[in-house]
Amino acid sequence: MAAPDRDDGETAYRLHRRFDRIGRLVGDRGMERLFSARVTVIGLGGVGSFAVEALARSGVGLLKLVDFDRVCVTNSNRQIQAVQGTIARQKAAVLAERVQAINPQASAEAVPLFYSERTSDALLADAPDFVVDAIDNIKAKIHLIAACRARGVPIVSSMGASGRIDPTALVVTDLSATRIDPFANQVRRLLRKKYAFPAQGTFGVPAVFSTEMPAEPCDLGYDGGLGFRCVCPGGANEFHSCEERRLIYGTAGFVTGAFGLACASVVVRALAARAGRVNGNDNVNGGHEPRAD
């Protein structure tokens, strides 16, 4: 990644072979920028865990991984950290170990906290170069987006990924221009109402959303048809309690993962563009919709 090659105490950039292929896309200047970048990922579920994976494999050197929750067996279909032997462990800690295994020279800080108005200042105090918002709690989500805007911290926000089965329906655009997704509609409305986001014009926040309407969950017959029972290792807590959730949508790992990979692409393209080199469409702040071809 980087090696101390100078006598003046500074660290010289040197590309490691593990990043040869991404380096051929963004060049040496882009890789040097990625190696020194500090990215915070908040929410390490089906979206956030895949974002972390892609950022680590793209050479991002400093990753702060924020999630209060523990790995649950029901995470197994969509979360990278949910494998045999990790159930009940802190999601952030498991992912930090994975980042170090991918790139031993990276720094991965595990922060087992829930993002909220109370924890916001502490979590954003290090002025990250980019934030990935993979939060599914709407109150926390809109506060994070507003806090990043107030601090001038770039952020990419994931909208609703549950209840979808088509990963090709994803779109990356400015949050103000999202459509169809009921969750995104709520986010836009509340940002305008509570945080004075503009009624007209762009928000300056790239968002990943799906044009596929969420499907109602199917009834399942396992466990004798007794219905859903919460088996989360954290049990009831002040942030999320699955027993109290009105509706639990189905999820597909290839959809939630696609959301996370798209979020990571926004971050990598933006950071590499700042270094003066990026291939492909670098319009990450709005208006870009992937072509079907």
Features:
globular; 13% strand; Rossmann fold; 293 residues; disordered C terminus; alpha/beta
Second rung of CATH, namely the architecture: 3-Layer(aba) Sandwich
What is the succession of H and E elements?
EEHEHEHEHEHEEHEH
The description of the largest β-sheet is: 7 strands, mixed
Contiguous helical run count? 7
Q: What structural class do helix, strand and pairing data support?
A: alpha/beta
Percent helix, as a range, is 25-40%
Number of domains: 1
- What's the mean pLDDT score? 88
Strand content: 5-15%
CATH T-level fold name:
Rossmann fold
Gist of the model:
By secondary structure, the protein is an alpha/beta fold. The protein is built from seven helices and nine strands; from the N terminus they run ββαβαβαβαβαββαβα.
Written overview of the protein:
There is one protein chain. The chain has seven helices and nine strands; from the N terminus they run E-E-H-E-H-E-H-E-H-E-H-E-E-H-E-H. Helix content is 32%, strand content 13%. Helix 2 crosses helix 7. The chain is α/β, with parallel strands linked by helices and 293 residues long. The chain has one domain: NAD(P)-binding Rossmann-like Domain (Rossmann fold, 3-Layer(aba) Sandwich), CATH 3.40.50. 42% of the residues are buried. The two termini are 35 Å apart.
